[in-house]
Amino acid sequence: MIYLDNSATTKIDPLVLEAMLPYLQEEYGNPSSKYYLLAENAKKAVSVAREQVAALIGCHPDEIIFTSGATESNNFIIKGIIDHYSSSSNLIITTKVEHPSVLETCNYLQTKEVKVNYLDVDNYGRINADQLHSLIKINKPVLVSAIWGNNEIGSLNPIKELATVCKQAGVFFHSDATQVIGKLPVNMTDIPGLCFLSLSAHKLCGPKGIGAAIIRKQSDEIYTKITPLLHGGGQENNYRSGTLAVHNIVGFGKAAEIAMKQLTDNQRKLLDLESYLSDILSSTLGDKVYFNHDNSDKIPGILSVQFKGVNNELLLKKLSPYAALSSGSACSSSKPSHVLSAIGMTSEEIRQTIRFSLSPHTLPSDLDFFKSLR
């Protein structure tokens, strides 16, 4: 079977698994314990992983808070900021094309009398920095949250411009960068207005169940205040209590290290594969296919494709013995795509759309299967 659902999850890299195994067997210490060797070894392994992740995204190691994944990170950051700073503002600005873990968090907060403004997007799912600036001038929010790279259509928001607008207005800015990390260069040092970032290891050939919330410091010695989602023993600089999953953290660090080394090569491979698959679909099916995504300024390797006159669920079932594909986000697979609706597609067009998400490990010969489609 050809696996083409890498936006949902990726296959763990063998080197990542190899790095993890000792911390499931011999090196099983709790890094919060003291003095004895197993604890110190675990503590050192976590520290190394923190440095590896920080190197990939251009932040300080102590700005990385390990979580169970981007869904927890999104919940933590949005709820935590609103709770701690509600006396200054109870308004959030976000977009209509966010991941469900952002949208559902905002929906929940609205039941607690928090105000949420959902920005419209263009036909590729992007928001405009000038639009955001105008809105902030009318009513200053406590937080703006905008996805960096869309998980369904791959489009990229102008994060640096959005972050600049927020910084100039004195507003916290958060971005869910889950789909971008490891596929495009990210350097938070170059984006001073980017206060918070969310990411998951399993999107870059790391293990499931581990991710990070990046909480930028106010200065070298001043940590940003935010209400924790989990209270307890005060791990992770009192931001996120709970015993650290050392094996998963080590795997995350190794995956980040590999992604950083291979970033340029992987980008090239993904772009080549994307072009190859697009050519196959166009030449095989002609005007029976339509590409919903932009051909530039997008995450490499994500294609959103309409198969005109064909129900996507029926097509997915028919192809399932041969190819792993999806109609959109794995976290909202039972619902029509809110992303495609927000960019102006009709219900019929949405029901005809399938997402292809490629991997650098995909072979061109794998994609030759789609030459048989008619």
TrEMBL record:
Keywords: Iron, Iron-sulfur, Metal-binding, Pyridoxal phosphate, Transferase. Residues 2-368 form the Aminotransferase class V domain. InterPro entries: Aminotrans_V_dom, Cysteine_dSase, PyrdxlP-dep_Trfase, PyrdxlP-dep_Trfase_major, PyrdxlP-dep_Trfase_small. One of its GO terms (molecular function) is iron-sulfur cluster binding. Its cofactor is pyridoxal 5'-phosphate. It catalyses: (sulfur carrier)-H + L-cysteine = (sulfur carrier)-SH + L-alanine. The keyword Transferase applies. Pfam families: Aminotran_5. SUPFAM superfamilies: PLP-dependent transferases (SSF53383). Belongs to the class-V pyridoxal-phosphate-dependent aminotransferase family. NifS/IscS subfamily. This is Cysteine desulfurase family protein. It comes from Paenibacillus roseopurpureus.
